[in-house]
Specification:
Length: about 130
C-alpha cells in the first residue's frame, strides 16, 4: 500500500516562497502521475498541479501558473511543489495524491486519485 507524507508547509508573508515535499513509501512512484491539491474550509478540494510518470506535460491550475513548479525525483520516491510569489489566497491545506494512471488528466479531479497524504498547512499572511 502506498503511503504519502507531505512536509514543508508553514506561515509565510505575501510574496514569499515555500517548497512542499511529498515522500512516498510502500510502492515506487515512477509509474504513476502525482498531483497536488489544496483545500480551504467549506470549499471543495482544488487540483493545483499534476506531473505525469514521465515528468513531461505538467499541469497547473490557472491561478498558480508562473508561480508554482511541480517536480518529481523517482530515485527518492518523492515529489515537490515549489511555490513562489505567494498570495493570501494560496492559504490552504495542501495534499499530495497519486493516481494509478501514468498521465495527468486536466482538469484534475479528486476521484481520479487513489492515494492521499494527510496534508500540510500553508498560511500566507503578514
Amino acid at each position: 500500500q502506498l503511503q504519502l507524507v507531505e512536509s514543508g508547509g508553514g506561515l509565510v508573508q505575501p510574496g514569499g516562497s515555500l517548497r512542499l515535499s511529498c515522500a512516498a513509501s510502500g510502492l515506487p512512484l515512477e509509474y504513476y502521475a502525482i498531483g497536488w491539491f489544496r483545500q480551504v474550509p467549506r470549499k471543495e478540494r482544488e487540483g493545483v498541479s499534476c506531473i505525469p510518470a514521465r515528468g513531461d506535460s505538467t499541469y497547473y491550475t490557472d491561478s498558480v501558473k508562473g508561480r508554482f513548479t511541480i517536480s518529481r525525483d523517482n530515485a527518492k520516491n518523492s515529489a515537490y511543489l515549489e511555490m513562489a510569489s505567494l498570495k493570501p489566497e494560496d492559504t490552504a491545506v495542501y495534499y499530495c495524491a497519486v493516481t494509478k494512471w501514468p498521465s495527468c488528466i486536466a482538469p484534475m479531479a479528486v476521484h481520479e486519485f487513489d492515494f492521499w497524504g494527510r496534508g500540510t498547512q500553508v498560511t500566507i499572511s503578514s
